[in-house]
Design goal:
The protein is an alpha/beta fold. The protein contains 22 helices and 30 strands.
Length: 934
């Protein structure tokens, strides 16, 4: 605990040459590959934090812990190891499976992608992406989607759904996987990830919140993948961030996820301050398991584990898919974990804690009463196929083709409707259906010529875009395209002629069609996805914010001859609209995001006025050069060849950056129009007498152990004759009674004190941290300190939804305004409703790096309105939490201050790893006893 008393400064940094562990073998090896290079900044440093906190059953986890402890107490060492270690890539039917415990009839646990449905399965739904849930600003829809997705996972026999996502948060607008999560605002994301998790887990399926943490871009997330693209990178990118930014931005939604009871959290590929996501004792032990008091288990992203014992001590609880790299037949855990306990390097309590955490999550969601055997296969759609796909052995019944979809299409359509954002409307919408001549123009309106699932993991951009690409996908059961839905609507409910041209490059035909059209609906898009697939030169992340398939020119060709052009955008995030958004011939603009299988139906509901749009942008649309952040695409070479990405913008991402820099966005965060209008009045901000905030104090019990470890090495030999050994499969067993020979770890026997930080195996009672105390953090952070009330009136002629938004100015060193409340209200024409929101202590606090705690801001200004820039009412919250008197003073007017691989789960192209895996480097870096940075 070298740095236990150290005040965390911005960018903890150390000169790596000061390390006492420089001589450790693994490090020396890495240094000869790529010594220090041209990165000139001070290397960010992640302080060691040990020991790994043992779960204690806090919050509402105590019943689950009682059951888990009782279960784990019965287990042998090898059985415990089986719970923690995957059987290897393609070893069983799911993208990840743990070992089983046949003696107790306990099955292998099945981990399956994705955050928007069941990946690699038939008869499942393709739900709207997370970014569309964000655009609904509707907690109820987030919950309903969670329930529906998890019901499908449960029906197919999945134990852990690998989702939802709040990392990436969305730092860079081009970030390839931003759409899998919600929004680049921690509050909005946190408010929607909580209900998503509660929905998932209400069905008895464990949620796995990912990717923890700072996994903000695809470029350089894994060295082998980057090398496959020709980059000279030998280690994953390091996201370098300061403590305040980490707490106020990136950790925030994970706190909400933990508070909502997420059973699992997936650690990420990237490094954080030069320590790997799954080896990082600071982010795992200190932040997640101590400060956030996380009671579930940490699972590695696929191949994100880089060492054995040291990752266990840094807080990793389960390794996926189990092999070191896909199909090596070797594991950092499995046999090695059994040996590490037998040779005394890993204390029994840590292994027991892993097993208890896994089983606690299992009981917490009630999996013991919801179990369904896996009845689908990720690797084949055939009914009969090899059970162990990795080695094509043992043909068996793998696909029972069970239809899991129920009535989920209606939830999908409802989210599609509610997430549609109307950005511009000069009276062109809604359409009547009786337009004389409707033109549908653009490839994005139609079908993929290869079929909706024609490109594996959606790794192409053909036809209408309804989800991004990568492991965060599912196969479509069908995909209703805009072209189909619009034409059907006009034929069934309207009159007039309707024509579609889906080839963006059929320029003369498009001009001819648009010239005669009463209305031209132009469809454009922009796609992105996971880094293992490169689509048209976009290596996961987008190359830029430009519309794909020459979208700007397509729009221009239409607007040059048609004065009623309506643009519909399907995109993974912000796109550059600057060339055409204010063209008078563009009479309406709609952002429809990634709506899933009911895409066309949901859009038609809005276009023809069955539904009044109420979605709001979950990101800022500005000019491309106006964003404060972007993806790093040219690697610099920092420590051991790891590109260094310094998050120098701190808190100022997305709208916070535009606000702070006084830059006018085109369409701001939170913006969205309706077919009606709303007015705001009577803001009242009332302080509430909350109990004083008390820093959490005290200490844990000593580390418990469950059952005793049989130390007779012979008892761990492979049970030849009892089970048949499957090649490449990862087992907990030994091949011989010689531990070193069984391990075949090249660094075997290195004394622990040469690579493990001191205190890492300490089992004595440990101090709690002031901001901790319950899952999600100190319970006092959720005390209500103020209520915000206002009257919202529908001043138009039709019923509509308004998303009322509350922003807070937290003062110096903070963005001008941050979102801290919202509610989506349905209001009848002419009617007024009272909006009410509660502000928690955390909502009006900032992170104090010195005290390592949240500190309430005095007299913050509270704004209310319809977007981050349209905030007609404001008031000061005065008196703090003890005043109890109403003192709101309203003021008018807002101030603006300011190589496709088809079956890789969370994976990547596997280039030959040129850097040898380092088995025993704690925190992935030299450990220094003192910080020389500031
Ligand atoms: C690092 O500093 C050296 C000397 O000042 C300079 O020549 C080099 O270009 C710098 N490298 C980078 C990546 O900035
Ligand atoms: C570990 O899991 C494997 C695969 O399910 C199984 O064959 C083996 O029997 C298990 N070992 C123990 C000790 O339960
Ligand atoms: C990779 O970078 C290192 C240091 O920057 C350099 O020594 C090495 O030659 C580079 N390798 C290639 C293949 O460019
Ligand atoms: C044990 O881990 C090392 C890497 O630390 C690896 O080289 C070795 O193959 C592993 N042993 C087994 C049996 O998987
Ligand atoms: C389908 O997508 C691929 C990959 O983006 C592209 O090369 C191809 O031209 C597209 N084909 C059609 C017919 O759209
Ligand atoms: C103990 O076993 C682990 C796992 O095989 C190995 O990494 C480590 O070097 C061993 N340590 C000793 C002291 O034998």
């Amino acid at each position: 605990m070298w740095l236990a008393n150290l005040v965390a400064p911005a960018f903890l940094a150390v000169l790596a040459s000061a390390s006492p562990f420089e001589k450790s073998e693994g490090l020396a090896k890495r240094q000869t590959i790529l010594p220090y290079t041209s990165y000139n900044g001070t290397l960010a440093y992640s302080p060691p934090k040990y020991p790994s906190p043992w779960g204690r059953g806090s919050g509402n986890w105590s019943a689950a812990y009682d059951k888990a402890r009782a279960f784990v107490s019965q287990l042998t060492l090898a059985e415990k190891v089986n719970l923690t270690t995957g059987v290897g890539w393609e070893g069983e039917q799911c993208v990840g499976n743990t070992g089983s415990i046949p003696r107790l009839g306990f099955p292998s646990l099945c981990m399956q992608d994705s955050p928007l449905g069941v990946r690699f399965a038939d008869y499942v739904s393709a739900f709207p992406a997370g970014i569309n849930v964000a655009a609904t600003w509707d907690r109820g829809l987030a919950y309903a989607r969670g329930v529906a997705m998890a019901e499908e996972h449960r029906t197919k026999g999945v134990d852990v759904q690998l989702g939802p996502v709040c990392g990436p948060l969305g730092r860079a607008p081009e970030g390839g996987r931003n759409w899998e999560g919600f929004a680049p605002d921690p509050y909005l994301t946190g408010q929607l990830i909580g209900p998503t998790i509660e929905g998932i887990q209400s069905t008895g399926v464990i949620a796995c919140t990912k990717h923890y943490i700072l996994n903000e871009q695809e470029h350089f997330r894994q060295a082998p993948e980057a090398q496959g693209y020709g980059y000279n990178v030998t280690e994953s990118v390091s996201s370098n961030v300061d403590d305040k930014t980490l707490h106020e931005l990136y950790l925030w939604p994970f706190a909400d996820a933990v508070r909502a009871g997420t059973g699992s959290i997936m650690c990420s590929y990237n490094q954080v301050n030069n320590s790997y996501g799954c080896s990082n004792s600071y982010t795992l032990n200190y932040l997640l398991k101590n400060e956030l008091d996380f009671q579930g288990f940490v699972m590695s992203d696929w191949q994100a584990q880089h060492s054995g014992v040291s990752d266990a001590l840094a807080g990793l609880d389960m390794t996926m898919p189990g092999d070191t790299l896909f199909l090596t037949g070797q594991s950092y855990w499995g046999t090695n974990l059994t040996i590490a306990v037998l040779n005394g390097t890993l204390p029994q309590y840590r292994l027991d804690d892993m097993a208890v955490r896994i089983m606690a999550a299992y009981y917490y969601v009630g999996r013991d009463t919801h179990y369904v055997p896996t009845n689908f296969d990720s690797w084949s759609r055939d009914t009969y196929a090899p059970i162990h796909a990795a080695v094509e052995s043992q043909i068996g019944l793998v696909n029972q083709h069970i239809d899991a979809r129920a009535n989920h299409a209606s939830i999908i359509r409802a989210i599609g409707q509610a997430s549609t954002v109307l950005l511009k409307n000069n009276g062109a919408l809604p359409l009547s259906g009786n337009e004389k001549w409707t033109a549908i123009i653009g490839e994005d309106a139609g079908s993929n010529p290869y079929g909706a699932n024609g490109c594996s993991d959606r790794g192409c951009n053909n036809g209408t875009l309804a989800m991004g690409w990568g492991s965060g996908t599912s196969d479509f059961p069908y995909l209703v395209t805009p072209e189909q839905a619009i034409q059907n609507y006009i034929l069934n409910s309207g009159k007039g002629e309707v024509f579609a041209i889906l080839d963006n490059y059929a320029q003369s035909q498009i001009v001819t069609l648009a010239k005669q059209a009463s209305v031209s609906l132009v469809f454009v898009n922009a796609d992105s996805g996971e880094g293992y697939i490169n689509v048209d030169g976009n290596e996961g992340d987008r190359k830029n914010l430009t519309l794909w398939l020459d979208g700007d020119r397509l729009i221009h060709n239409v607007t040059s001859v048609c004065n009623n052009t309506i643009v519909v955008i399907h995109s993974v995030g912000p796109v550059d609209v600057s060339a055409w958004y204010n063209n008078d011939n563009v009479t309406a603009v709609i952002w429809a995001g990634l709506p899933g299988q009911e895409s066309g139906n949901a859009l038609v509901d809005v276009l023809y006025g069955k539904i009044n749009p109420g979605g709001k942008l979950p990101f800022t649309i500005g000019r491309p050069t106006d964003y404060t952040t972007s993806v790093m695409t040219t690697p610099n070479n920092g420590q051991f060849g790891a590109p260094q990405q310094d998050f120098t913008e701190g808190l100022l991402i997305d709208y916070r950056g535009f606000d702070a820099n006084g830059i006018e966005p085109i369409y701001e965060f939170g913006f969205g129009l309706s077919y009606t209008t709303f007015s705001y009045s009577n803001l009242v901000v009332t302080p509430v007498n909350a109990a004083p905030y008390t820093p959490f104090t005290g200490q844990t019990s000593a580390a418990p152990t469950y059952g005793t470890v049989d130390t007779n090495v012979a008892d761990y030999l492979f049970p030849n004759g009892t089970i048949e050994r499957v090649p490449l499969y990862i087992y907990p067993y030994l091949n011989s009674t010689n531990l070193q020979a069984s391990s075949s770890d090249p660094d075997y026997g290195l004394p622990a004190n040469q690579y493990l930080p001191s205190g890492s195996s300490d089992s004595s009672p440990q101090p709690f941290v002031p901001a901790g105390g319950a899952p999600g953090g100190n319970p006092g952070l959720w005390a209500t300190v103020a209520t915000v009330q206002a009257t919202i009136t529908n001043t138009g002629k039709v019923a509509g939804d308004e998303v009322v938004q509350v922003y807070v100015s937290l003062g110096d060193g903070e963005p001008p305004r941050v979102l801290r409340g919202f509610e989506r209200l349905t209001i009848a024409p002419g009617a007024s409703v009272t909006f009410q929101a509660e502000l928690t202590r955390k909502d009006v606090s900032t992170w104090d790096v010195a005290s390592q705690n949240w500190v309430q801001v005095s007299n913050p200004t509270i704004y209310i309105g319809s977007s981050s820039r349209k905030l007609p009412l404001s008031a000061k919250l005065s008196g703090g939490s003890s005043s109890g008197s109403s003192s709101a003073a309203s003021s008018g007017g807002s101030k603006s201050t300011g190589v496709p691989v088809s079956q890789i789960s969370d994976g990547q192209i596997q280039a030959t790893r040129t850097a040898p895996p380092v088995s025993q480097i704690s925190d992935g870096q030299p450990q220094s006893p003192k910080s020389t940075g500031s």
